[in-house]
């Protein structure tokens, strides 16, 4: 009987797409996907290390896996992703029952490492030699999926003062456009209608390598038959250029939603973070985007309690949020990461104060999100179907061009794109009926 693998993914979309690649690689090595942890012979944790809480979650997960492994002979445990990259050998010291530790640049070696582990040879493979071979491995995609993530670059050169990503993902490298376009054409042939382009800083695509620039890549992707929607994450506000902004007027397939992390509304804090833009520059770029595509919406990431953040700095963040009216945002308390500049900075903010700031920021965001959802009532929207609604009540679930989730009653329409009348708005999603 074929052995089976269960992959548990933490962190961002980069990890999600890497997990789908691991599954492709292991399917070719005679592994099938296990429906549950209990059924599996091999477990892979694809880990994240962005904040301390993320690390803690993974160490507690590892405790569970020690017992899981003891319950049946021959079971194997592998740990990949950003925490594995950071911890390397020390992870096996802390959790000796881990058979494989593999870093973010060693994914393509997975079949070989698993085979060795089966012969009771444990491995720690965390060399950061810039191996990018894995990105030509097509991520596993279940039949009937209409939206797919496509890696366009890896790593990051920005070294924002708080961020561990450059340490765990390595230097920025752009994937050759030819491979990206070939993958997207193959996806379109399989029925995919939406692509989400992935990179830590998509706006600097191609610069180092002398590849085509990001706006040209977008233009070429928009010419691929069958691709109706294009999204990209993450944009860096400093590198978002006029050419890319202008495309929002020209290319209908570019979705009217941009995730553009502001992090803080205070210029003093932005400078300490090393973000490379001011609040005014950020607002001027988003204004230009609003002119290029009326109705465009934005989402963001925020960090509160960065070292030295005062109440006035924090108010500037609330104020920027008020001006931007994001459709959604992720906000986090600053978490010091070993090896980053901010970890050694003075001016630590009291956890009680940062906790309270986080609540204030999130409640303002909730108000804005709800106002925008309520404003959609009575409108007809195009929805890309993602599957059945989680409640299993016969409704379908999908996304609007602005990335809002809609649960709707189908009316016999065919295909992945449906016209839906929004009948009511919930806290985080919309409810509607398909127009026949
Ligand atoms: N490349 C993306 C973000 C990647 S990390 C960008 O440049 O925006 C995702 C988010 O995690 C960041 O936007 C930031 O808001 C948050 N984050 C990163 N490091 C953090 C830290 N040390 N403490 C708290 N939040 C952090
Ligand atoms: Fe981290 Fe900054 Fe790079 Fe984003 S741009 S991944 S926040 S270093
Ligand atoms: Fe986490 Fe690594 Fe992504 S640290 S947020 S999984 S790049």
What is the end-to-end distance?
Answer: 47 Å
Radius of gyration: 22 Å
Q: Note the beta-strand portion.
A: 15-25%
Work out the helicity level: 25-40%
> Could you say which small molecules are bound to this protein?
S-adenosyl-L-homocysteine, iron/sulfur cluster, FE3-S4 cluster
- Helical segment tally? 13
User: Looking across the biggest beta sheet, what order are the strands in?
Assistant: 2-1-3-4-5-6
Shape: globular
Q: Which runs of at least 5 residues are low in confidence (pLDDT < 50)?
A: none
| Name given to the CATH homologous superfamily of the largest domain | tm_1862 like domain
Structurally, how many domains make up the residues?
A: 3
Mean model confidence by pLDDT? 96
According to CATH, the fold-level topology of the largest domain is pyruvate-formate lyase- activating enzyme
Which architecture of the largest domain would the CATH scheme give at its second level? Answer: Alpha-Beta Horseshoe
Major sheet description: 6 strands, parallel
* Estimated structural class: alpha/beta
How would you summarize what this structure contains?
By secondary structure, the protein is of the alpha/beta class. 35% of the residues lie in helices and 22% in strands.
Structure write-up:
By secondary structure, the chain is α/β, with parallel strands linked by helices. It has three domains: 3-125, Rossmann fold; 135-374, pyruvate-formate lyase- activating enzyme (Alpha-Beta Horseshoe); 380-434, OB fold (Dihydrolipoamide Acetyltransferase, E2P), CATH 2.40.50. The protein has helices at residues 13-28, 52-70, 81-87, 89-94, 110-118, 165-169, 177-189, 214-222, 242-250, 267-273, 279-292, 311-324, 351-374; strands spanning 3-9, 31-33, 42-47, 76-80, 100-102, 123-125, 147-151, 153-154, 173-174, 194-198, 229-233, 257-259, 297-304, 328-333, 380-388, 396-399, 405-409, 417-425, 429-434. It has a six-stranded parallel β-sheet with strand order 2-1-3-4-5-6, with helices on both faces. Strands 15-16-17-19-18 form a five-stranded mixed beta barrel. It has a three-stranded parallel β-sheet with strand order 7-10-11. α9 (242-250) runs parallel beside α11 (279-292). The longest helix has 24 residues, at 351-374. The radius of gyration is 22 Å and the shape is globular. The mean pLDDT is 96. Bound molecules: S-adenosyl-L-homocysteine, iron/sulfur cluster and FE3-S4 cluster.
